[in-house]
Amino acid sequence: MSRFYALQRHALYVLIAAALFGASAPLAKRLLEQQSPLSLAALVYLGGGLALGIAWLLRRRHMKVPRAHGRWTASELANLVGAIIAGGVLAPIILFWSLSKMPAASASLLLSFEGLLTAVFAAVMFHEAVARRVWLAMLIMIIAGAVLSLDRGEFGLQLVPAGGVILACALWGLDNNLTRAVSHRDILGVAALKGLVAGATNTAVAALLGHSLLVSVQGTLGALAMGALSFGLSLVLFVSALAHLGSARTAAHFGTAPFIGAALAVLLGEPLSLSLIAAVVLTVLSTWLVLTETHEHGHTHETIDHEHAHVHDEHHQHGHEGDEGPEPHRHRHRHEPLSHSHSHLPDLHHRHRH
To answer: What ranges does the record give for the region Disordered, renumbered to this chain (predicted)?
Structure first.
């Protein structure tokens, strides 16, 4: 298997992340019967942060994980803070408020905008190369959402809540691109930090505004559990894929989340319609377009000094001190200028202009 197609295994991570996140809308709709949107946003991210924090501590205790030697740069810290504010604090509050004003199925379908807006930000703001077939995959996702909306007669959605969901998607799209800048760091640690800081921030705001987080034991535990899976584990898988697939392609795969939510609605009692079947077919087609993409051209790697987990492949031919441990290992290393041609994705070493 070529290195290009080996990287595509990370698409599976995104699809699992999409399944976990897609289930969040119908589950959150039920939890909002007991919790305020602000309280739910706090509990969900606290649940994700706590679960990932415990997993991070257990991994450090029972596994030999290379420590990161390089300090965080000012740019990396700025990107992380921006990602936490946009995607961890503002987006969930706006989404859950909107969800409290509209049907869960409608909100699930509108969440397809996250993938599109992530790709737009990646191309326009961060100059990521996005192939035509990836844009076509995005378009197919939107068509699939329109098919479902038309069948449900939901084009008459209230403007403000629907706009709120789209705004939340825009904030998560920005979050996704900012997080890519630190995706070479300890993925589990970064995700745990994002969840804990965002959850603590929303908890403080909820307390100041008089919103209780302990309305009921069942509701609180349900919110924490949903956060651990839909916003915790899902985030780790998503960030892992970002480092290898780039923002646009990761977002294209993650665009399946709304339709997974629709499928869950069927399992919870909604009828299986022809439009839902058509949307599933379109989603499979969209995913196939991105999975079968090839991107190859002559390119030059500039000199770069950075740190991330790696093996000694064509891009990592450097010396060692002797204490780096078995591959894959993490240590500071330097890339000398290199010009060559091969199939690649916009991973850590291929973020060049086209």
So the answer is: 309-354
Q: Which of 183, 190, 233 is nearest to 345 (CA)?
A: 183
Q: Please, are residues 342 and 322 in contact by the beta-carbon 8 Å criterion?
A: no
**Residue 173: both structure tokens together:** 């799209």
Read off the pLDDT of residues 141-162 as tens digits, 9 standing for 90 and up.
778 767 765 655 544 445 678 8
For helices 91-99 and 187-208, the axis angle rounded to 10 degrees is 60
Phi and psi at residue 188, to the nearest 5°: -65, -40
Paired tokens of 267: 């399992």
Residue with tokens 């894959």: 328
- 3-class DSSP state for residue 82? helix
Q: C-alpha distances in angstroms, 27 versus 77, 123, 135?
A: 33, 33, 30
* 8 Å CB contact between 83 and 75: no
- Strands (E) across the chain are located at 296-301, 304-310, 329-335, 338-343
d(CA 137, CA 250): 12
Residue with tokens 């480092």: 243
Residues facing residue 243 across a β-bridge: none
Single out the residue of 341, 165, 335, 351 nearest to residue 249, CA to CA.
Answer: 351
- CA–CA dist 260, 115 (Å, integer): 14
Q: Measure the CA–CA gap between 71 and 182, rounded to whole angstroms.
A: 12
Place of tokens 């090839």: 294
Question: Tens digits of per-residue pLDDT, 292-306?
Answer: 766 454 556 566 665
DSSP string, 125-186: TS-----HHHHHHHHHHHHHHHHHHHHHT-TT--HHHHHHHHHHHHHHHHHHHHHHTTTTS-
Is 0.90 topped by the overall pTM? no
- 337: preceding bond cis by omega (within 30 degrees): no
Q: How far apart are CA 43 and CA 45, in angstroms?
A: 6
**CA-to-CA distance for 157 and 51, rounded, in angstroms?**
36
